[in-house]
Design brief:
This protein has 165 residues and is mostly helical. Strands 1-2-3 form a three-stranded antiparallel beta sheet, sandwiched between helices.
């Protein structure tokens, strides 16, 4: 269940009405949602395999800079060379699918973010890590954003203004 104030915050963060909201999966240090859990199917029945969705625009910008810098390609290359990392990433994929399947099974639906063999979307991996602590490459991406002086994710004031109750 998601409160009306959290729904309003997510709508302000995304700049649109959010779809398939189920719950807040993680909160930013400012107290607002930064990751939401979404339904495996949208209201119209369309499959939506992204269980965890990064909503904070500051977090999304920080992660987007990593993607623009080519981090996904280097992470994918490392998966081919580092057996321990590949095994941990495969475990993250299994965790993601188990959590999504616990809500609703999407037969034939892919995992998310490129798991388990490549890195396709760091936003999904970061959201998964924040929500569960189970994604090694999401964790690494979070650490990389912390090293970027342009990152203002988690700093006050909050990323959006939301009226109080």
């Amino acid at each position: 269940m998601i409160s009306e104030s959290d729904r309003a915050a997510v709508e302000a963060q995304l700049g649109r009405v959010p779809r398939g909201l189920r719950a807040v999966a993680h909160r930013c240090a400012c107290g607002l949602p930064d990751v939401v859990e979404t339904a495996p199917r949208l209201e119209d029945g369309s499959p939506f395999p992204t269980l965890y969705y990064l909503t904070c625009p500051r977090a999304a910008s920080a992660v987007g800079r990593l993607e623009a810098d080519g981090v996904m390609s280097s992470m994918t290359d490392r998966l081919a060379d580092d057996e321990a990392l590949a095994a941990s990433y495969a475990d993250a994929h299994a965790d993601y699918l188990a959590r999504r399947d616990a809500v609703e099974v999407l037969p034939g639906a892919p995992g998310a973010g490129g798991m388990p063999t490549r890195v396709k979307c760091l936003h999904v991996l970061v959201a998964h890590e924040l929500a569960t602590g189970a994604n090694p490459l999401g964790r690494e991406a979070i650490e990389l954003t912390a090293d970027d002086p342009r990152n203002v994710w988690g700093q006050l004031p909050p990323c959006v203004d939301v009226p109080g109750p």
